[in-house]
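Hi W., the nicotinamide-adenine-dinucleotide complex you wanted:
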Amino acid sequence: MVVGGGPAVTESPLRALHASHRTGPKDGEVRSENRGSYGGHMHDQPTVLGAMSEGGHELVVHATDEASGLRAIVAIHSTVLGPALGGTRFYPYPDEASALTDVLRLSSGMTLKAAAAGLDLGGGKAVIIGDPGADRSDALLEAYGRVVETLGGAYVTAEDVGTTVEDMAVVARSTTHVKGLPIEQGGSGDPSPMTARGVVASMRAVAAYLWDDPALAGHTVAIQGVGKVGAALAEMLADGGANLIVADVDTERCGEVAERTGALAVDPEKILQVRCDVFAPCALGGALSAESIPRLECQSVVGSANNQLATREDAGRLAEAGILYAPDFVVNAGGIVNISVELDPDPYSAARASERVDRIFDRITEILDAARADAVTPLSAAERLAYERIAARAAAV
Ligand code: NAD
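Structure:
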């Protein structure tokens, strides 16, 4: 196994976060125009250190294992608030530069998410380059676990796109710094139901803000994508008496969820235009753009998808259209809050996790109040809340 890389001192996490937030590709999408360039240049040669200092990353480690074919990059963006927690993405990146760009972007996003959620955790992420269907093996995951172990707890891994809770159980054979383990092993299991619970808490906060009552009964919610989170969300909302409209490109799955929850199923291309109180993007990133926002017929957007805004300017576009946007990284923090409960000295408890996830209601309320008071978008208010926590902690040490 070869492990390389080293710490780079960042001047200011605040500046770094501002510079790095949301500049990368949307979730599930790999941008290739930077191919061959890591973002930093020295005598016209791309440098990893250049890209790290641009994004304010503390540590980037490249690792290979000849025997298993492992090729991985771990990025620790910030440990100011605590160990850097973030999942492991297993993805067939077209080249190493795309993988590096993605891991740098994703790890800085985790710093923001953990800080906004009020967790004493920093931001990190790892990518394994390869096709999880063809390249996954126990030997590879064990080798990856040894890489994580080398970092001595500065980075704590979990599942992400392309990896599963069961994969993390294999990674755990060679490191203790892995969370999101199966319930049978004392872990928190699949985070999706807790993510959905956090979305419901966020919707209730938005309802209290807009309509002076947190109850969702009688309100219409349109859900784009009824996968693991969207389906759990639909069930919780149906139990609470909301009227549901759902869409998914997987029509069979959509039909099943509609039948189970009494929802109206519509075509995926129609879901953006349905008249509703809350639009919940729970599919892929980039649903909100200059092209889609004028077509929306909702009063608010509250969903689980990562990177819902195609560009930062879309937060302003939503505000101008009179649509309240609850920032995605605050709304969808239920999964990471749930996993963080595994780091407690006491064994994981779903009741304790639920209680912490429900506090997302207070986070959203605080953000919406701050946005109104300062006449800024909720996105700006949420980012500021996160940056201020990090800056205060950095100043205290
Ligand atoms: P998933 O893959 O289980 O579900 C996504 C669903 O969206 C699938 O059913 C898919 O068919 C559907 N879909 C894809 N494109 C669509 C389109 N154009 N229109 C309608 N439906 C479409 O994923 P998930 O775990 O439910 O996550 C959903 C979103 O929430 C993702 O963006 C994910 O990154 C984010 N998220 C998930 C968690 C979690 O705990 N699972 C935590 C934080 C954020």
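The domain at 192-334+362-386 is CATH 3.40.50.720 (Rossmann fold).

W.
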